[in-house]
Amino acid sequence: MIQVNHLTKRFGPKTAVNDLSFDVQPGVVTGFLGPNGAGKTTTLRAMVGLVRPDAGAVTINGTNYHDIPAPTHEVGALLEAKAYHPGRRARDHLVALAQASRIPSRRVDEVLGLVGLADAGKRKAGTFSLGMAQRLGIAAALLGDPPVLLLDEPVNGLDPEGIVWVRTLMQALATEGRTVLVSSHLMSEMALTATHVIVIGRGKLIADSSIEELVRASSGSRVRLRTPLAGALVPRLQAAGGTVQPGDDGALLVSGLEPEAVGDIAFTARAPVHELARVEASLEEAFMELTQEDSEFRAQGVKGQGVKGQGVKGEPAAPQGWGAAAGTGVAGAGAPAGAGTGGQVGTWPGAPAGDGAPASTSTPTAQGWPAARQGWSRPS
Ligand SMILES: Nc1ncnc2c1ncn2[C@@H]1O[C@H](COP(=O)(O)OP(=O)(O)OP(=O)(O)O)[C@@H](O)[C@H]1O
Ligand SMILES: [Mg+2]
Fold it and tell me: 8 C-alpha vs ligand 2 centroid, how far in Å?
């Protein structure tokens, strides 16, 4: 287990890591996520004594790294892929590391084979591609067969086969009971690899949770309901605390309510249910939502928003004939269909006359639909 306790690291005026605390448990792959400059590498470096904390501490299985008698056998780290002499042959690089830790050279051949570099061991490491360098770095981390592994963006530069291999390797190592902490910016890959994630931004902890919980808590996770009486149900769903948006095929996308509640509301309203399903957000959506305030570096003109008229990534674009006239809705909570003031009146499927459903008479500022074609913003 790794324990980070109130870790703080400053570089001059810059606080790279700010009173950061979390534990990394053995037996699962833990993803270490955060925008560029969040402090991930600094934290990983502090774990192996390469950064001296200004405050706080990190322990590996209860011991400070500098006090571990044979650290190579306790912690393996890949922090910098090309941390080798470029003129040295790959195998010789590993042999030098092995000798320093009294590891027999047969282990060198073992790890070279494990990372797929058995045939490249005699090549000078300086001629390696980024992907090969990553593999060599992983080989070095595995040399001492350590129970704790720290990998900083290990799949950078790897080909698809290599990415799958790293994923399988990390999961296998975790299944053996090891502690595996891996940083990455590839959210889809992290979602496949890790079980738990630590998310940091500007050096501070943002989330420490299972991926499942993180994704479920995201506003991008919704319940999809398809019913011919959608119009009658919208106000009822809103009254129960749900936020309702139109799906691209006439379905309702409800956030803030569990599928059971949505189903019960439909049942009470005697609305036939043609489809009821939980739609989970992607890890990328959850991550973007969590870190939107903490991204220090953002390209101008690209704000993570979708193409105009298409909605934020993961958000459906409002279909024609649904929703308020452009510009009349509140961001993320615009007017219900049929409420547009600009003359473009949407039609609720199944909004029955005299049913008592007020869906098509609400004001534009009531909770309801986003101003679809003005570029959506994520509900807060
Ligand atoms: N040796 C250093 N000297 C000065 N500033 C540093 C040093 N190392 C890191 N920093 C600063 O600390 C902050 C955190 O950097 P760090 O490399 O830990 O971020 P990161 O989360 O790994 O980012 P990335 O995703 O881009 O790899 C950054 O603002 C960085 O510029
Ligand atoms: Mg980094």
Answer: 16
CA distances from 163 to 141, 158, 330 (A): 17, 6, 42
CA nearest ligand 1 atom 27, residue = 36
| pTM assigned to the model | 0.76
Give residue-wise pLDDT tens across range 251-298: 999 998 999 999 999 999 999 999 999 998 899 999 998 998 777 777
In short, whether 93's Cβ falls inside 6 Å of ligand 1 is no
Ligand 2 centroid – CA 124 distance (Å): 26
pLDDT digits (tens, 9 = 90+) for 134-167: 999 999 999 999 999 999 999 988 889 889 989 9
Domains in the chain (CATH in brackets) are: 2-215 (3.40.50.300), 223-276+317-380 (no CATH)
Q: Is 302 exposed, middle or buried (0-12, 13-18, 19+ CB in 10 A)?
A: exposed
CA distance 244 to 348: 13
Nearest-ligand number for the alpha carbon of 16: 1
Residues in the chain: 380
